Amino acid sequence: MQPQHQAAPGDLEYVRRFINTWSIPNQTRTATDDLPLLARDAESWREALSLHPPADKDSLEQLRELRSDLRKSCEGLDKANGLLNAWFSRVSLSVRVKSVEEGASQLCVMPADGSYIAYILAAVANAISSGTWSRLKTCGDCRWAFYDNTRNGSKRWCGMTKGGVDGRACGTIAKVSAFRARAAARAKSDPGAH
Fold first, then answer.
1. Which listed CATH number (1.10.1760, 1.10.10, 1.10.3300, 2.60.98) goes with 12-189?
2. Are 10 and 176 in contact (CB under 8 A)?
3. Domain locations in the chain as residue ranges
4. Of all helices (H) and strands (E), which one includes residue 18?
């Protein structure tokens, strides 16, 4: 069970779920890939990911590559946004102007074909446009994708509390590990101090 209150706003939540088809479960701490099973079972796909199913042209290899590149972007490893820009150049997207309130408009990116990849990338483009993309992050410990809903956007771990019997307090674990490392370094540099 992963921490609660991790949901992203709007369609960005579907991106977060898609990224989390690769995970490190708390129970085993071994990486798992749920994407092959989900891609073969339409009902499981709808329940776990989206009402928008993969199209015939959405190969498992492409879906895995997209998931990996989105994860890298969330981890801050997509220097100069090269991975995202490469994906945006590969898919068909259209841009519309949408009225949001009296006299105000915003751009809305839509998939121009029926592919799941275009659907996910449209959600990413809209999140970039709205400023929410930078708040989709991955935990430094378990690598779970979460939405940072803190005021200053500084959250680094999926959670500080266990969040259930099978939960993992990644932030607490990281802080305890750092404390122990500092204590060990102090003890090493000053062997006579207790």
1. 1.10.3300
2. no
3. 12-189
4. helix 12-19
The closest of 22, 19, 51, 49 to 34, measured between CA atoms, is 22
* Tens-digit pLDDT profile for residues 10-61: 999 999 999 999 988 767 778 899 999 999 999 999 999 988 999 999 999 9
Please state, in angstroms and rounded to a whole number, the distance separating the CA atoms of residues 37 and 124: 24
CA angle 129, 85, 65 (to 5 degrees): 110
pTM for the model stands at 0.80
Give the rounded distance of the alpha carbon of 21 from its chain centre. 10
Can you say how many angstroms the Cα of residue 130 is from the centroid of all Cα atoms in its chain? 17
Closest-CA residue to 160 (of 152, 176, 171, 147): 171
In this predicted structure, the answer to whether residue 165 has a pLDDT above a threshold of 50 is no
